[in-house]
Amino acid sequence: MLCNGSLEMCLFFFVAWVLYASQVAAVLDIKVPDGALVAQYGKDVVLNCSFSASSAVNISDLSIIWQLADTKKIVHRFVLGQDDLGSQSESFVGRTQLFPGRMSTGDVSLLLQNVQIEDEGVFTCFASYEDYGSASLQLLVGASYSKPHIMAKPASNLRPGDEVTMTCLSHGGYPEAVVLWLDGRGNNLTTLSSTSQVANEKGLFMVHSVLRVSVEANSSYTCRVKNEALGEETHSSFNITGPQVTFPPVALWVTISLAVCLVGLLIALAYVCRKKIAESCKEGPPAAEEAQEVEEDETKTAMKPLNS
Ligand SMILES: *[C@@H]1O[C@H](CO)[C@@H](O)[C@H](O)[C@H]1NC(C)=O
Ligand SMILES: *[C@@H]1O[C@H](CO)[C@@H](O)[C@H](O)[C@H]1NC(C)=O
Ligand SMILES: *[C@@H]1O[C@H](CO)[C@@H](O)[C@H](O)[C@H]1NC(C)=O
Ligand SMILES: *[C@@H]1O[C@H](CO)[C@@H](O)[C@H](O)[C@H]1NC(C)=O
Ligand SMILES: *[C@@H]1O[C@H](CO)[C@@H](O)[C@H](O)[C@H]1NC(C)=O
């Protein structure tokens, strides 16, 4: 045997054999797209794979296997001109299709429908036609995040300097989002926030980010949720406008002073009025006294004859 020496020797021969075998056997030059393929969650994607055929391919002589690189699960199998789906992995049942119309040109691409998060991974395309060969491609999955919803606590009667907790919620995305908080002037407030992302049973993330700030008048707080895999961004702002920030201190003092002035004025007015009323009352009694005197005089006069 070649391999009765050391373990290293064995390993060396094994590696050499693999390299040799792959060069000899892989004469079917299989082409797949360069770089990772990004598919939208829930949509369909075509995993391109082809070999160059010198003449029209006789499909009866063609076999294709699409397989997951790590688990070796069968995604789709086509043997000598016919689908052979007995060994297909359960998670792909009813979601895969080859393109028989294109096979005669060596196109063995796979249509994968209703892409799921767990489809993410490396797919290997094997083709056998006279010779055989294989190539692998990476599938990434992206799902769009919903427009964030911002809740503030407390939400009303805010005064400048009040501590406010803002919560930004966005859901249904994949992969994990990059969350940023900015104020109206573009300042980065992200370090003041804390973000958690939890996946649901479908693998889609729910973003929950909390920002604590002391608010300023006429300010706005924006929560940005970025999906870098899809090159997407969605955002919402919470605006704190003039009327919402009630009574800035200056206005409050102006209002109080005005109120004090008004009350003072009213008191003064009331005093003056009372005095005036009192004066007019004093003018009344003298007339009455005169009348009484006249009456008394008359009585006296009336009594005079009796006296005399
Ligand atoms: C896949 O193949 C189709 C048809 O040949 C082509 O239109 C498309 O651009 C290819 N896609 C990629 C990602 O290479
Ligand atoms: C295709 O191959 C099958 C089986 O090898 C053979 O019977 C058939 O005649 C071939 N068809 C053509 C068009 O060459
Ligand atoms: C904001 O700050 C965060 C963390 O401090 C950083 O990762 C991010 O790149 C910054 N973004 C911008 C737009 O300045
Ligand atoms: C906040 O203001 C921005 C720009 O001024 C505007 O685009 C956004 O719709 C406002 N948001 C709310 C909730 O009013
Ligand atoms: C806030 O905005 C309102 C209306 O745009 C403006 O009248 C007010 O002066 C602003 N207040 C501050 C403190 O900037």
Automatic annotation (TrEMBL):
Main subcellular location of this protein, as a coarse class: membrane
Residue ranges of coiled coil: none
GO cellular-component term (any): external side of plasma membrane
Signal peptide: 1-26
Ranges that cross the membrane: 250-272
One Pfam short name: C2-set_3
A Gene Ontology biological process term: T cell receptor signaling pathway
Top-level taxon in the UniProt lineage: Eukaryota
Molecular function as annotated in GO: signaling receptor binding
Region of interest called Disordered, as start-end residue ranges on this chain: 283-308
Matches recorded under SMART domains: IG, IGc1
Domain Ig-like: 42-136, 148-239
Protein's cellular compartments: Membrane
Keywords of the record: Disulfide bond, Glycoprotein, Immunoglobulin domain, Membrane, Signal, Transmembrane, Transmembrane helix
Family statement: Belongs to the SKINT family.
Protein name: CD276 molecule
Gene that encodes it: CD276
